[in-house]
From TrEMBL:
SMART domains reported in the protein's UniProt record: DUF3402, N1221
Lineage of source species: Eukaryota, Metazoa, Chordata, Craniata, Vertebrata
Organism: Acanthochromis polyacanthus
Name of protein: Striatin interacting protein 1
Bias type Acidic residues, positions: 355-369
UniProt cross-references to InterPro entries, sorted A to Z: Far11/STRP, Far11/STRP_C, Far11/STRP_N
Comp. bias (Gly residues): 1-10
Residue spans of biased composition, Basic and acidic residues class: 24-37, 333-354
Location of the region described as Disordered in the Swiss-Prot/TrEMBL record: 1-44, 310-396
Primary location class: cytoplasm
Subcellular location: Cytoplasm
Transmembrane segments: none
Protein family membership: Belongs to the STRIP family.
Domain Far11/STRP C-terminal: 438-771
Amino acid sequence: MDVGGNGGGLPVNNKQRAMLPNKSRGEFTRNPRKDSEGLSESPDLEFEYSDTDKWAAELSELYSYTEGPEFALNRKCFEEEFRPHVSDKKWTELDAAQHRAHAMRLLDSLEVIAREKRLKVARAILYMAQGTFAECSSEAEVQHWMRYNIFLLLDVGTFSALVELLNMEIDNSAACSSAVRKPAISLADSTDLRVLLNIMYLMVETIQQDDPADKPEWKIIRETFRAELGSPLFNNEPISVMLFGMVTKFCSGHAPHFPMKKVLLLLWKSILFTLGGFEQLQSIKVHKRDELGLPPLPEDSIRVIRSMRAASPPASASDLIEQQQKRARREHKALIKQDNLDAFNEKDPYKADDSREDEDDNDDNDNSIEAETFPLERDEVMPPPIPHPPSERVSFPKGLPWAPKVREKDIENFLESSRSKFIGYTLGSDTDTVVGLPRPIHESIKTLKQGEEEVEMCSTELLYQGILPSLPQYMIALLKILLAAAPTSKAKTDSINILADVLPEEMPTTVLQSMKLGVDVNRHKEIIVKAISAILLLLLKHFKLNHIYQFEYMAQHLVFANCIPLILKFFNQNIMSYITAKNSISVLDFPYCVVHELPELTAESLEAGDNNQFCWRNLFSCINLLRILNKLTKWKHSRTMMLVVFKSAPILKRALKVKQAMMQLYVLKLLKVQTKYLGRQWRKSNMKTMSAIYQKVRHRLNDDWAYGNDLDARPWDFQAEECALRANIERFNSRRYDKSHSNPDFLPVDNCLQSVLGQRVDLPEDFQMNYDLWLEREVFSKPISWEELLQ
């Protein structure tokens, strides 16, 4: 049974099935759009890629709409704990000493045996972490008190107590066995876990927000918490390793009641906080290059992408037919004036001029892959440009946006071919003789000659050591959940149920309740995709920067777990519908819902959704998945061929319909690596896409991506390539992390004859019984040349 539309076979009982609306059995989307509808006229998406969405959005996504009634329950539990000690004042009216005293009382009350009492106190702490919202009049005030209360809770030691309680709940075999036996799991089965995870998530998410107005002591607390979170202080492992353990336990079927969305969100924010986001990655990269004496980076990729413009999508079949009809109607027109021809021929097709100059030429410009014009691809001449007011024009850098790059194999191939051609002989793998080569090659050679550095025990290294023993299982578990949450997944009986923390105990009885649950289920799946895509991308980027073999180990296990076809399957849908989906009810989002009177929901208001041009989390997820696919396939010919075999080109080309520069760039990168394998006819039929690749994607030395002349396209080398990489990774992990030194290749060799002969060797029992026969066969019956032996 596929609940809420787009998950991978989520089992529910017949009662739940009957009560779900038809729309939620299929994908619950509003205002669906056809693939070709309005593509040419669709505006650029004003999306700014970042580590996370706005803080309020990240807070609201923690809660499903089904959890709404629990806000009042948390407040009630807090009041019952608070009023016996302070009867005449509100929380917001107390001084710092009184706040601290009550926080300590709540922390002490957590140390009780009775589960009901513990849950009540945990709810009171959760209400504090939610900003004691009943005493606030605005969302900004709620967020202010959230920050104050959370730093207070952290300072008195609440987080450590929560980790201990979470460990108890993870090991609660009674709850696990009860959940396994249940035919349908609902929100009620995960109450204790949800309360604990809510508090922990709010603490991590709030503290990682760097506010310049924070007090100095808060900044110290923040940095201490970051270090503790990434070190093995909790249960002798980083908190992320414990959460990975919850993910695998859930996927194995032993704990189906785990609220997986909250676990994944906390895992993502823990990794983001301890390892750092994209800005920190860039600063670490700059620092490491400086340490190695390398020149500074020519550009920051994210900043370059932000300055790029989106391209118009390739023409769909209906657009091409319409275009041909228009051209047929124009055939009777007079010949083109010569001065127009001259103006046309003088235009440089690769200059990034303002696209507004061609706005009136709608017949041709609508379906061009790029706002600029291309002489070889147009059948008519552009009209003279229409001037625009200066205020409307935006200045863009001329020429190509990226500095070209080079790699070792390119250097070797270039040198070998040049020496063979001009000198008549080769020098093998000699890359020292580099007279006349450009500066990037000198830098690459300098990089390659650097020795291996000492292992620095940073947060990334600690995390890798923690997840190394079970990393393959973690990757499989994440991809299983991603598959279940993907919109394109079909119902399967053996799929995991990812809706444990969204389905209510009592299923809806009215159309309005059913519509609300349908929105909630789809939103729930979108948030899971967002969290998993961010986790995988962050880990890949940090491991690659820490040590290339850490990255390769994770990447190879993602490939073995079918990550490449899974991502392609995800994109094999109407991607514009996914990105413009309106699966949210803004009046029910936290903290809006706790400080405003809620209007009456109607079927019409749910159907209409919000007024946003796109869904931030879905566009974020799509870009992350494309970046992951790029990282897995880059410079790996066997994996590039997987893109070809799985027919990814038409899927990726459809994704170009999303007019957002960053997403289009990563789609074009994936198309670029496989163009040489797609054949001349494909390249000829997709010249606009090829032109966009030329303009937007970085160029590399000797990279004939637009032609089919690559010697590396030999299919028999693919398996050997993966096997050689795997052997290198295993040697790296064994040398660096295998404390037992069980691999004989890395044991020291004893060359002393006396010590070798003096070692005690335990002989097997059957050898001792047949010792006489062994002596006869191996010693007495063989002639011995004593002269040679003594020499």
